[in-house]
Amino acid sequence: MTQNRALQLLYDLRYLTIVLTTKGEEMKSGRSKQDPRVEKVADYLEALIDPFDLDVFTPHLHGHLSRLLQRTSVLFGLVTGTENQFTPRSSTFNSQEAHNILPLASSQIRFGLLPLSMTSTRKAKSAGRSIEPRAQ
Q1: 10-15: long-range contacts at Cβ-Cβ below 8 A with a sequence spacing of 24 or more?
Q2: How far apart are the first and last CA of the chain?
């Protein structure tokens, strides 16, 4: 078996284990540990992968796994019950992220007010009244 195939099977095994294991089963048994048979297969697959490559690919596998679990919970959340099994996004600061200050501002004026004086509008109203012909 090739290393790529072993990585894919390890990814699939972890995905299926998380999706098909419900929280109720873990609470009843009092353990959040995986089934020993699943652990045995995962250990076998990890033995087929070069240890250096496994260390390199493990963070990527976990990232893609959590993203896939989120998609699965959106599509089949009621069936699978994976609502709390994925990890939330980290709130650590990354210097490469684009800054968005707009939600942080408390009061935002999108358009400035026009400088109008009240005297000019009153004069225009009074001039408009005097021009109108009076019908008798």
Answers
A1: 10/42, 10/45, 10/46, 10/49, 10/61, 11/61, 11/64, 11/65, 13/38, 13/41, 13/42, 13/45, 14/42, 14/61, 14/65, 15/65, 15/68, 15/69
A2: 106
Give the domain extent around 18: 3-80
Contact 82, 19 (CB under 8 A): yes
Task: Tell me whether residue 127 is in a domain.
Answer: no
Compute the radius of gyration of the chain from its Cα atoms: 32
Q: How many residues does the chain have?
A: 136
- Confirm whether 67 is domain-assigned: yes
- Rounded Cα–Cα distance for residues 29 and 65 (Å): 25
Answer for the pair 69, 15: CB distance below 8 angstroms, yes or no.
Answer: yes
Structure tokens at 69: 């679990």
136 residues of the chain, pLDDT tens digit each: 899 999 999 999 999 998 887 665 555 555 556 788 999 999 999 999 999 999 999 999 999 999 998 888 888 777 766 445 444 455 555 555 565 655 555 555 566 667 777 665 566 666 666 665 656 5
